[in-house]
Design brief:
The protein is of the alpha+beta class. It has 14 helices and 16 strands. The chain is globular and about 80 Å long.
């Protein structure tokens, strides 16, 4: 069966047939016209701050949108940087297998990539079956990866520079319709435009600055009011618990089986909410830097299970198991008990939301010199030992010192800054870990990664012992 390809202008919704690119035998048929990318493309990439190996949230969101719409198993948004195709947003790479070069390096040499034709023509290009193309290093690479169909659209900046592609691949021969390619082109335009908009906004705001006194005072007032509101929630919850308790004992008359079931649900939900209110009030809402450290004897073997019990309902809802162990003969530590409890709570809370279901979350307490060391990691029957990749990337960002800037960037990218700030999903990943780091540093400690690719990584939180109460 003859192979056909589909091309149409990037902004034209009417496709037309065109033959695949041809040329002399060898890799030249799919390579760029010049040994190096044009200077205009390099200048555009540098001007946009994209000349780095980091992923771009706007591109990640664009390619995820494509996956949800087309259902293809593999895709990426990539840039032509030098002689390399750099991935800035991907999905499905993990399906190639752990340790795969694409998964680890997130790039391809241009000579072994199908990107060149789109870069040169600035037109979409769809291939029904890659093995029908002229045999080159690029097609051989795709076939070796088990990929059959390929479709890419140009990634064009507002200055009309083509800097890369948005590409999708299928493991079976596939004909990409005009509607499919139109959607890919729309996603590419949206991703590029959204990144440029976010960058312009960030440049207008300038570098991260400390909060002015007025804003800091406003934050303190909001925290105080929030604490008061949470405290006030106890009164109606107490009333609900008391009334449901009396109704369940049938003081006011017999109940049907269905009424008894409903009252049990209300009572259990109210009790859970009351416990959460107590946990919030106990953990506190004040910034740690305004609260002086208070040294007191802390028995970690007793404190740890208290925190685990608090998080047990959440672990059950996530189908996870919490396991807390203590190094023998550890004794009692002179620490700020309030800080230790919060550090443990927020660290485990953050890890729980990044770990998969059916995992065992392990927390081990040990002595490292004069410091308490709390190690957190995950055991999974299929994924082995270690911490999730998401947490590892976040920890690396914190170690580089750009944790708060990364948080603000994520907030902006998700459209969560401003009056409609509702970072619920983001809180599960970022805020708990940031809070944990801030508290550990306030106690004179730190959080860091420990381990290797072979043995797996752990998140280790160290808290030095206090000789006396800090001023």
């Amino acid at each position: 069966m003859a192979m056909s390809s589909l091309m149409f202008p990037a902004y034209d919704l009417i496709p037309h047939q065109a033959p695949p690119p041809t040329g002399p035998a060898g890799d030249a048929s799919l390579s760029v016209a010049s040994p190096n990318p044009t200077q205009g493309r390099l200048d555009a990439i540098a001007a946009l701050g994209l000349d780095n190996p980091h992923s771009v949230p706007a591109f990640e969101e664009a390619i995820q949108l494509v996956q949800a719409h087309l259902g293809v198993p593999l895709g990426w948004v990539s840039l032509a940087l030098g002689e390399t195709e750099i991935f800035k947003g991907t999905y499905g790479l993990s399906s190639l297998g752990l340790g795969h070069p694409l998964v680890e390096q997130r790039c391809l040499p241009l000579a072994e990539s199908l990107i060149a034709h789109v870069l040169n023509s600035r037109q979409p290009w769809a291939v029904t079956a890659v093995d029908q193309l002229p045999q080159t290093r690029a097609t051989a690479r795709m076939i070796a990866y088990g990929l059959a169909a390929y479709c890419a659209v140009p990634l064009i900046t507002s200055q009309q520079q083509c800097i890369g592609v948005l590409a999708v691949m299928d493991r079976q021969p596939r004909t990409f319709t005009a509607q499919d390619i139109s959607f890919l082109a729309m996603a590419a335009r949206w991703g590029m435009g959204e990144y440029e908009r976010q960058r312009a906004t960030a440049q207008d705001d300038g570098q991260a600055q400390t909060l002015p006194l007025e804003r800091a005072a406003g934050d303190a007032v909001r925290l105080h009011l929030l604490g008061q509101i949470i405290q006030d929630m106890r009164n109606p919850l107490t009333a609900v618990l008391g009334m449901t308790s009396m109704l369940s004992r049938e003081i006011y008359g017999p109940l049907t089986e269905k009424q008894r079931e409903y009252i049990g649900i209300v009572h259990h939900s109210s009790q859970t909410l009351m416990n959460q209110v107590d946990d919030i009030l106990e953990l506190g809402l004040d910034p740690p830097e305004v609260v002086p450290l208070v040294a007191s004897p802390v028995d970690v073997s007793c404190l740890g299970p208290q925190v685990i019990d608090t998080l047990a309902p959440l672990a059950e809802s996530l189908s996870q198991t919490l396991a807390f162990t203590v190094e023998p003969n550890q004794g009692v530590w002179m620490l700020d008990q309030h800080i230790v409890k919060q550090v443990l709570y927020h660290g485990v809370f953050s890890l729980m939301h990044m770990a998969s279901a059916n995992s065992i979350l392990r927390i081990h307490s040990s002595r490292k010199g004069q410091s308490l060391a709390l190690a957190l990691w995950v055991s999974n029957p299929w994924l082995g030992e270690g911490i999730p990749n998401a947490m590892m990337r976040l920890c690396q960002s914190l170690e580089r010192g750009d944790g708060y800037q990364r948080l603000e960037a994520d907030l902006r990218n998700q459209g969560l800054l401003g009056n409609n700030l509702t970072p619920i999903a983001l809180a599960k990943y970022w805020l708990g870990l940031l809070r944990c780091q801030h508290l550990a540093q306030h106690h004179g400690g730190q959080i860091r990664l420990q381990g290797s690719d072979e043995t797996g990584y752990r998140l280790v939180i160290t808290l030095p012992a206090l000789v006396e109460a800090a001023p």
